[in-house]
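[scheduler] slot 2 assigned
[scheduler] job type: sequence-to-structure, two independent chains
[scheduler] chain ordering preserved from manifest
[runner] begin chain α
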Amino acid sequence: MIELYYAEDDPAIAGNVKEYLEQRGFKVKVFPALGQLREALACRVPAMVLLDWNMPDGQGDSLCRWIRSRWRELPVIFLTVRGDAQDIVEGFASGADDYVAKPFALEVLHSRIQALLRRTKAASDAYLSCGGIFLDQSRRAVFCQSEDIILSAAGYQRLLYLMQNKGRTVTREGILAQVWDVKGSYVNDNTLTVTMKRLRDKLHQPACLKTIRSVGYRMEDRMEDEGI
C-alpha cells in the first residue's frame, strides 16, 4: 500500500481527501501541524508528502526545504490557494515537485499524485526507513535520527538486507547465505554475532532492531507497534 503524509489543519478537507484516496488504495496519515509531520518523517519516510502552504505553525516552504536537505528526491506536492502566484514560485524554489490549487477536485488531486508517483517511483524506492533509521540506496548513505552513520561495506549490506525485509523475521542462516564480507569470503556464525553487535552500537542500540532468540533478527517500525 502506498503511504502518503498529508499536512492539513482543516479537518473537513483532510477527512474528504483521506477518505477519497484510501478508497483508491492509498494509506493517508493526516497531520494538523508542520511540527507533527516533521516528527513523523524523523521515524519513517512515506512515498509522498502532500503539503498545505498555510499551517498554524508556519508555511510549508520551510518544511519542504528541510525535507530536501535530507531526502532530495522524496516527492512533494504543495496545496495552495488558487491564484497565489507567489506561493507557487516559492514552493518550487523550496523544492516542491508539483502543486494543486485550492479549491481542487479530488479527481484532479488523485491524477496529479499518480502522475508524480510514476515519474518518481525509482527515486522513492531508493529510501528505506525504520524507527528513525534511514537508508538512501542511491547514495549508499545511512542516517540515524538525522546523524550521518559511517558503516563498513559489510555492515551496510547487513543493514540493507534487514531493512529490505522489514516486518519479517530474517534467520541467521538467511543472513549468512545472502551477505558476504568485503573480500567475498563467507561469514561464519560467530562473526555474524560480533558484526551484528557492532551494527547495533553504530546505530545507538535501536529499539526497532530486535533479536528473535534462537532464530535471527527482525526490524520493526515502532510507529506501527504503537498504532501511530
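[runner] end chain α
[runner] begin chain β
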Amino acid sequence: MKLTEDEIRKITFEAISELGDQITPEAVKELVRKRVEAMGGDYKFQKGEVSSGRVILTSFGLNHPGIVAGVTKALGDANCDIQDLSQKLLGDFFTMIMVIDITSSQKDLKEIQEEMNKVAESLRVKIYLQHEDVFRFMHRI
C-alpha cells in the first residue's frame, strides 16, 4: 500500500505528540517507520530525509540592537553550530532564519527550545525551533 504525503505527515505529528518528553529525531523516525509498516505501507525514507540533528530557527519582532547577539550567544553557550543564517529588516521589523546543528550540544532539542523561549522573552521577539525532519515533512509537495 502506498501512503500519501498527508498520511505520512499525520502519522509523524501523531508520533511527535505521543513521544512527549522522550522526543528525539531518532525516536520519531522509528515510531513513524513502525506505524507505516503496521499499516502495510511501503514508504522509504529518501536520501536527505533521514534525521540530521539540525533544527530550523525562525525569529521575528520589532527591530532593536542585540537580537542576533542574544540568540547566537545562547546557541554558542549550548555548543550549537550555526550552519546558515539569513536576516532581513523590513522597515521596523526584524526577521531571521537559522539552520543549526545541535548534535554537539549537551542539551536536547527541548532544552534548547526552553532556552530560546527565555531569550525571546528577554529580547521581546518571537523565536520558533523546529527539527529539520519535521520541517521537511511539513513542507514537502
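[runner] end chain β
[qc] chain β: Strands lie at 54-62, 81-90, 93-101, 126-131.
[scheduler] slot 2 released
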